[in-house]
Amino acid sequence: MNKKVILACAECSSRNYSTNKNVSTQPSRLEVRKYCKTCGKHTLHRETK
Prior knowledge:
This protein has no helices and four strands. By secondary structure, the chain is mainly β. It has one domain (2-48): CATH 2.20.28.120. A four-stranded antiparallel β-sheet has the order 2-1-4-3, with no helix packed on it. Strand 1 (2-9) and strand 2 form a beta hairpin. It is elongated, with a radius of gyration of 11 Å. One of its GO terms (molecular function) is structural constituent of ribosome. InterPro entries: Ribosomal_bL33 (IPR001705), Ribosomal_bL33_CS (IPR018264), Ribosomal_bL33_sf (IPR038584), Ribosomal_zn-bd (IPR011332). Belongs to the bacterial ribosomal protein bL33 family.
C-alpha cells in the first residue's frame, strides 16, 4: 500500500518535495539527499508526519 509523504529539509525545515512510499516494505522514515532551493545546496530531506 502506497502512502503520500512530504519531505522537509533538515537544515531549514522547508517542505520542498512530495513522493510516494510503500509502507509495508519501508516502515521507517524516509531520508534522501535532495537539492533545497531555500538553502541553495544539497541537504538531507526527511519524511514529515
